[in-house]
Amino acid sequence: MPDPSVVIRPARLEDGEHVWPLAKAFATSFTPERSAFDATWKQLVDVPDTLLLVAETADAGIVGYLLANSHLTFLANGPVAWVEEVMVDETLRQSGIGRLLMEHAEQWAKSKDAAYLALASRRAGPFYLALDYQDSATFYKKPLT
Question: Beta partners for 73?
Fold first, then answer.
């Protein structure tokens, strides 16, 4: 059961300072650069069709974040939503915060009339399966730099 003192809210410009350590810890195949993070954060806070949430507690401050977007597709006959990043402080995992972030993302995706919400995950498969997500594809990427 999630701690009732956890608040999930839209990110604000000033939250970037507290999200940076989480984003830095999240990366496995890239090394995030602070200057790029700062520039991107400023752009993402107010982008239409983008959801940027933070999880905040009174005691610890910002302890998690989620970044998602929606876009149009032919295959789904309209919009779909995609979770790009979801991260919870390592010391608070399995406390329900990730579940709360995903529930908020699902509600947002429904408000966008998305046919589905999807994501790619290498490390948290059991978490998403427990939230009723289905393993439905293999993720491929090709570095361009």
Answer: 78
d(CA 48, CA 23): 21
> Which residue segments constitute the domains of the chain, with CATH numbers given?
7-130 (3.40.630.30)
Kindly report the pTM of this predicted structure.
Answer: 0.91
Q: For 87-100, what is each residue's pLDDT tens digit?
A: 999 999 989 999 99
Sign of the Cα torsion 142, 29, 25, 120 reads: positive
pLDDT 10s digits, 54-101? 999 999 999 999 999 999 999 999 999 999 999 999 999 989 999 999
Q: What is the 3-state secondary structure (H, E, C) of 55-115?
A: EEECCCEEEEEEEEEEEEECCCCEEEEEEEEEEECHHHCCCCHHHHHHHHHHHHHHHCCCC
CA dist 78 and 71 (Å) reads 8
